[in-house]
Amino acid sequence: MSVVKINVLTVPAEARERLEDRFANRAGAVESSDGFEWFELLRPVEGIDSYLVYTRWRSEEDFQAWQDGQDFARGHSGGGSGMAPAATGSHVWTFEVVTQAAAKS
Ligand code: HEM
Protein backbone atom coordinates (compact mmCIF):
# COMPACT_ATOMS: atom_id res chain seq x y z
CA MET A 1 0.00 0.00 0.00
CA SER A 2 0.99 3.61 -0.47
CA VAL A 3 2.74 5.93 2.00
CA VAL A 4 1.45 9.36 2.98
CA LYS A 5 3.90 12.17 3.71
CA ILE A 6 2.41 15.30 5.20
CA ASN A 7 4.46 18.46 5.48
CA VAL A 8 3.13 20.50 8.40
CA LEU A 9 3.68 24.22 7.83
CA THR A 10 3.56 26.93 10.49
CA VAL A 11 2.27 30.05 8.76
CA PRO A 12 1.67 33.39 10.53
CA ALA A 13 -1.80 34.82 9.83
CA GLU A 14 -0.38 37.68 7.76
CA ALA A 15 1.55 35.24 5.55
CA ARG A 16 -1.34 32.90 4.66
CA GLU A 17 -2.23 34.66 1.44
CA ARG A 18 1.41 34.66 0.35
CA LEU A 19 1.68 30.94 1.05
CA GLU A 20 -1.43 30.17 -0.99
CA ASP A 21 -0.16 32.43 -3.82
CA ARG A 22 3.10 30.50 -3.87
CA PHE A 23 1.26 27.22 -4.17
CA ALA A 24 -1.02 28.68 -6.87
CA ASN A 25 2.15 29.44 -8.84
CA ARG A 26 3.95 26.23 -7.92
CA ALA A 27 6.29 24.49 -10.35
CA GLY A 28 3.97 21.55 -11.05
CA ALA A 29 7.00 19.27 -11.14
CA VAL A 30 5.82 16.77 -8.54
CA GLU A 31 3.13 15.41 -10.89
CA SER A 32 5.83 13.98 -13.16
CA SER A 33 7.81 12.30 -10.39
CA ASP A 34 8.00 8.53 -10.38
CA GLY A 35 5.65 6.97 -7.84
CA PHE A 36 3.73 10.20 -7.14
CA GLU A 37 0.03 9.56 -6.50
CA TRP A 38 -1.64 12.61 -4.94
CA PHE A 39 -1.08 16.08 -3.52
CA GLU A 40 -3.28 18.62 -1.72
CA LEU A 41 -2.59 21.86 0.08
CA LEU A 42 -4.97 21.90 3.07
CA ARG A 43 -5.96 25.24 4.67
CA PRO A 44 -6.70 24.94 8.42
CA VAL A 45 -10.26 25.73 9.50
CA GLU A 46 -10.72 24.17 12.92
CA GLY A 47 -8.66 22.14 15.38
CA ILE A 48 -5.16 23.02 14.08
CA ASP A 49 -3.50 26.24 12.85
CA SER A 50 -1.00 24.60 10.52
CA TYR A 51 -1.33 24.24 6.76
CA LEU A 52 -0.86 20.64 5.67
CA VAL A 53 0.77 19.63 2.41
CA TYR A 54 -0.65 16.14 1.90
CA THR A 55 1.29 13.92 -0.51
CA ARG A 56 0.83 10.23 -1.29
CA TRP A 57 3.45 7.97 -2.88
CA ARG A 58 3.69 4.41 -4.18
CA SER A 59 6.57 3.74 -1.75
CA GLU A 60 8.95 5.34 0.76
CA GLU A 61 11.73 4.99 -1.85
CA ASP A 62 9.74 6.99 -4.43
CA PHE A 63 9.19 9.78 -1.90
CA GLN A 64 12.89 9.82 -0.94
CA ALA A 65 13.95 9.90 -4.59
CA TRP A 66 11.68 12.93 -5.21
CA GLN A 67 12.97 14.71 -2.11
CA ASP A 68 16.61 14.10 -3.08
CA GLY A 69 16.07 15.03 -6.72
CA GLN A 70 15.70 18.01 -9.03
CA ASP A 71 11.89 18.01 -9.02
CA PHE A 72 11.86 18.78 -5.28
CA ALA A 73 14.41 21.58 -5.75
CA ARG A 74 12.39 22.99 -8.65
CA GLY A 75 9.16 22.73 -6.64
CA HIS A 76 10.72 24.72 -3.81
CA SER A 77 12.53 27.42 -5.72
CA GLY A 78 9.64 29.88 -5.43
CA GLY A 79 9.47 29.97 -9.21
CA GLY A 80 11.74 33.00 -9.26
CA SER A 81 8.86 35.00 -7.79
CA GLY A 82 11.11 36.87 -5.40
CA MET A 83 8.41 36.43 -2.74
CA ALA A 84 9.74 35.98 0.79
CA PRO A 85 9.19 32.57 2.39
CA ALA A 86 5.76 32.33 4.00
CA ALA A 87 6.22 29.46 6.44
CA THR A 88 8.19 29.96 9.64
CA GLY A 89 8.46 26.26 10.47
CA SER A 90 7.84 22.78 9.11
CA HIS A 91 8.02 19.12 9.97
CA VAL A 92 6.99 15.91 8.21
CA TRP A 93 4.48 13.28 9.33
CA THR A 94 4.66 9.79 7.78
CA PHE A 95 1.78 7.32 7.49
CA GLU A 96 1.18 3.99 5.79
CA VAL A 97 -2.17 3.65 4.04
CA VAL A 98 -4.07 0.78 5.67
CA THR A 99 -7.42 0.91 3.89
CA GLN A 100 -8.78 3.17 1.18
CA ALA A 101 -11.90 3.80 -0.87
CA ALA A 102 -12.93 6.09 -3.72
CA ALA A 103 -16.42 7.17 -4.69
CA LYS A 104 -18.23 4.85 -7.08
CA SER A 105 -18.53 6.74 -10.34
C1 HEM B 1 11.61 22.81 4.49
C2 HEM B 1 10.34 22.54 4.55
C3 HEM B 1 9.36 22.96 3.49
C4 HEM B 1 8.77 24.19 3.30
C5 HEM B 1 8.96 25.46 4.12
C6 HEM B 1 7.89 24.06 2.13
C7 HEM B 1 7.10 25.07 1.59
C8 HEM B 1 6.60 25.03 0.29
C9 HEM B 1 6.14 26.16 -0.51
C10 HEM B 1 6.06 27.62 -0.03
C11 HEM B 1 5.79 25.67 -1.72
C12 HEM B 1 5.22 26.45 -2.93
C13 HEM B 1 6.29 26.62 -3.99
C14 HEM B 1 7.34 27.66 -3.59
O1 HEM B 1 6.95 28.76 -3.23
O2 HEM B 1 8.55 27.34 -3.64
C15 HEM B 1 6.01 24.24 -1.71
C16 HEM B 1 5.75 23.35 -2.75
C17 HEM B 1 5.52 22.00 -2.53
N1 HEM B 1 5.84 21.31 -1.38
FE1 HEM B 1 6.90 22.04 0.13
N2 HEM B 1 7.95 22.78 1.67
C18 HEM B 1 8.86 22.06 2.46
C19 HEM B 1 9.14 20.72 2.34
C20 HEM B 1 8.24 19.81 1.73
C21 HEM B 1 8.13 18.39 1.98
C22 HEM B 1 8.99 17.58 2.95
C23 HEM B 1 7.08 17.93 1.18
C24 HEM B 1 6.48 16.55 1.08
C25 HEM B 1 6.02 15.94 2.16
C26 HEM B 1 6.60 19.06 0.43
C27 HEM B 1 5.59 19.02 -0.53
C28 HEM B 1 5.43 20.01 -1.50
C29 HEM B 1 4.80 19.84 -2.80
C30 HEM B 1 4.19 18.53 -3.34
C31 HEM B 1 4.88 21.08 -3.46
C32 HEM B 1 4.44 21.40 -4.90
C33 HEM B 1 5.70 21.17 -5.77
C34 HEM B 1 5.41 21.17 -7.27
O3 HEM B 1 4.49 21.84 -7.74
O4 HEM B 1 6.18 20.51 -8.01
N3 HEM B 1 7.30 20.17 0.79
N4 HEM B 1 6.48 23.88 -0.47
UniProtKB/TrEMBL annotation:
Keywords: Monooxygenase, Oxidoreductase
PROSITE patterns reported for this sequence: ABM (PS51725)
Protein name in the entry: Heme-degrading monooxygenase HmoA
Entries under InterPro entries matching the protein: ABM_dom (IPR007138), Dimeric_a/b-barrel (IPR011008), Heme-degrading_MO (IPR050404)
Any one GO MF annotation of this record: monooxygenase activity
Domain ABM: 3-92
Any matching Pfam family: ABM
Source superkingdom: Bacteria
